[in-house]
Design a protein that fits this description.
The chain has 176 residues and is α+β, with helices and mostly antiparallel strands. The chain has helices at residues 15-29, 73-80, 100-115; strands at residues 4-10, 37-39, 42-49, 52-59, 64-69, 85-88, 118-119, 128-131, 140-147, 152-159, 162-169, 173-175. It folds into 2 domains: 4-119, 2-Layer Sandwich (Alpha-Beta Plaits), CATH 3.30.70.940; 128-175, SH3 type barrels, CATH 2.30.30. Strand 10 (152-159) and strand 11 form a beta hairpin. The chain is elongated, with a radius of gyration of 23 Å. The N and C termini lie far apart (57 Å).
């Protein structure tokens, strides 16, 4: 039996429900040995909203699932007959398995984010922001630098007619 990973298109926003439905249908058909894993690729990120830190999961590829399987006619039929299932990623409807490098990269990203969640910093250099807290509260500025590892944002603020760089936590500023 040759188990390979495939990418499957599904309805956006319903990936987890379709994944559960696929797992149930595979179990009912007794094909667990041919389809051992159906995976929704997600990464874990840290986000701060209203001053509270939350850890959330964000889909790496919205509208897609990864399926490890030995593709034959029985598996093909069960997958195609599951509601919400789109089709396989490949040329002219023929499923193309993923390479080992692609799989290891995706699984590595998922594992790395699970161990150490990324920060959700949504600022880029040149963005106009308003400072929400601290000594420079209610000052407007321009993002000069973003440090994703530390979650810091360097903002250029004009004080007494002079441009002054101020380093702040990313949650202390908001976009204008």
């Amino acid at each position: 039996m040759a188990l390979k990973w495939y990418i499957v298109r599904v309805q956006v926003g319903r990936e987890d429900r379709i994944r559960q439905r696929l797992l149930l249908r595979i179990k009912q058909a007794g094909l667990e040995d041919k389809v051992p894993e159906v995976l929704l690729p997600v990464e874990t990120i840290t986000d701060i909203k209203s001053g509270k830190k939350r850890v959330v999961k964000r889909k790496l590829f919205p509208g897609y699932l990864m399926v490890q399987m030995d593709l034959d006619d029985d598996v093909w039929f069960v997958l195609k007959e599951t509601s919400g299932f789109g089709d396989f990623v490949g040329a002219r409807g023929k499923p193309v398995p993923m390479t080992d490098e692609e799989i290891s990269k995706i699984l590595g990203t998922m594992e790395e984010s699970r161990e150490k969640p990324k920060l959700s910093v949504q600022f880029d250099k040149g963005d106009r922001v308003k400072i929400k807290q601290g000594h420079f509260e209610n000052f407007d500025g321009v993002v000069d630098e973003v440090n994703l590892e530390k979650g810091l944002v360097k903002v250029i603020v004009t004080i007494f007619g002079r441009a002054t760089p101020v380093e702040l936590e990313y949650w202390e500023v908001e976009p204008i």
